[in-house]
Each structure stands twice: as structure tokens, then as C-alpha cells.
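The protein record filed here:
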Amino acid sequence: MTCRRGVHRTLRRVEVNTLSFIRGRLTFLSTGSVGVGFQNDGGYRFNERVCACHAASDVLGSLLDSRTALEEFFCGCAARLRRLRMQLIVHYEEHHELVRFSACEDVRFYNSFKIVVRTESGNCFVEEVPLSEGLPETLMEDIRDFTSTVVGSQLSMATLVRRSAAFEQLDEALTVLLEPRAAGAFFHEIIGHMIERDTYELVKARLSHASFDPKIIFRDDVRDYERVCGLNKFDDEGTKIVPITLVADGKLCNTMDTQRFSGEGGLSGFARAESILYPLLPRMRMSLVSSSTHIERPSLPVRYFRMEKFLNGSVMPGSMNFWIQGSGAIVQEGVRVALLPHAVVTGNVIDALERIPYMGDDERAFFADCFKGGQTVRVGYRAPSVVLKPLRISGTAYMLRKDDHE
């Protein structure tokens, strides 16, 4: 089902509720707007902006009811971090949206709670906390765990950096173990963006006939994740959102198409825009990575790189070469021997995905704001741990002493 818009008038009503910890206080702000416009050659014309109202969610209500307890807790966390020359930033945001097409309408909602710890050197550590039952106690526990982890890692890194002779520049080909968060972001960046139809036209000659490891199942399915991806029944063209398999049985099965950027297949609801002011682009929604077979994890080499957190990455469409940056550790004989806070991993997309030694069954879901074409939309990915065959690893490796080892 598709609600074809052509040049029909549309309405996109958005309200954003935010709750931020600023200068020792939890500050609530609600803003609303209505954008009325029409689509013409892939663009929007914006006509007016007026106030809109939506009820706050149960999550926001629970947070506001616990405002005093949360303020006291956040103040305590912030004070501890200040003594270590770190800053705490806490931000809750929820989006209520109504999109009305000529023949249908869509009601959407998503929320996110971000915790940011900023260090004296300007580094930012960001964690998104899933909000569920048990607020505010579960939220406090999540924040306490995250801040403790950041403080511990930063104190360890500060100790390593002070040892002027305890680091070296690494440039080595190593087997790579991606933890679930890094694996999900890896597939999102190096294959997901490549099969969004606007980009796919640049790589079609190389990617359409590529052979992938038959274990790889790469799908996009927003079901059960609507409230974290900000989607519901229809995309921003009015096309019904349906699940789709993108890679399976060793080959590319489908691409992410829109009415403007379309191929041979049908439309599955991938047209997205940050707001009515932006053009529609084919964008991922909820990327799901899994394995068609479950095997025991093979013995890893004596020395390998374990990427724990993905920072960013990119693919060069002409060559299909990629680079990704993340933090992790060199593991040798089962023991961490060096930390790499900004490791760069390079390789070729087709070569890396042609054979994958191992894909686990420890799948976990994560959510983020994805930037492309000058605009940001809400996305998610779920993946297990993945082992990649040797890739080039470079970066500053801070060597660990025996008393630093886990």
C-alpha cells in the first residue's frame, strides 16, 4: 500500500519535549510546529509554522514526578566528575509526530536518553540509555555504571599516557573481533549505506555481482522498534513500511529504494527526511544482522584486535575500500597487551564480507542518530559479535604492564 503524494499538500506536525540537566537543575522544554507544504521534484516548500500540542509520554511523566530525586542524583554524579575535571551532560528527548498525506496519516513517536561525559581534553563519551519500566531507579543504575566505566577507562588511559615510553605506532594486519555494538555499526556503515539507492547507483557495477559469505543475513525490519526509530506505518512518501531482506544466501537481494530513487524492485518504505524542510532520501531504519548457521566460536589467533566501540567510518564507492575508526585492545594469548583508543581499520568491503570466520548468536540492539546528506534521522541496528579475517590496523597502541591486564 502506498499513499502517492505527487504534488498533494501534506502536513507534518512535530512536538519535541526535552528534559536536560543544566547547572544543577532539570529543565523541561516543549516546542511544537506544523509544517504545511508539498512535494515537488523531491523537495519541499515550507509555508507556515504554528504551535502544536501533544500529551507528554508516560516516560516523561515518570521522570518529572521524580525530578527532585533525579536532580540530587545528577548533582552527586556531576560533583564527583568535576573533581576529576570531567563534565556530566544528561539529555532526554521525545518526538511526537503526525504526518498527514492526501489519503492517509501516520502517528509516530520516539524517545532517547543520552548521557555525555566530557573530559578536560574535550573527548566526549556518549551512552544512550534504553528507557523502560522501573524509572527512575533503573536510569540511575545505568548512569552510575556508565560514569564509573568512563572514569575507570580515563584514569587507566591517563596512567598509560604518563608513561612516555609505554606506547608505539601500530601498523599491522590482524584478525578483528567486533563486539556487537561495533559489528552493528560496521554493517550499517560499510554495506547499509552502499545499498541505499542513491549511493547504490555509484557502486552497482561492483556490488550487484559480489559474493558474500552465505552466513550473512542482513535485513531491515522496524517491527518492535518503532518507538526508538521514530517510525510507524508509512515512510515520508506515504509508502507502507514493510520488512525486507537485503543480503542472504551469499548475494545482494534488494536495495533501499524510494519513489525518486527506485530500481527494479518494489518500494518498502525507506524514504526519510529530518523534517519538511529537507529533501527525501533513501535511509536505513532498523538494520538486523544475523547468521544463517550457528557454530562454536573458533579459536582466535594468538594475537588479534578486539574492537569494543565504533566511532565512525566511510567507504570510497569507486574502489569499495573502507576505513573504520574505533576503540579497542590488542589481545595476545588471551590477555590484553595494548589499548588503542583511536584505532583505524582498513580493508575492502567485498573482500571483507566474502568470507567471515565467525558470527555469534549474542545479538544486541543499539540506536543512534545517523547523519547523511546534511540531515540527521533516527536509526537502529542489532548484531552479534563478528570475527573478520585479517585487516590492516593502525594507530597509537598504549602498552599495558602485567598489573594492568584484566
The chain has seven helices and 20 strands. Residues 4-9, 36-54 have pLDDT under 50 and may be disordered.
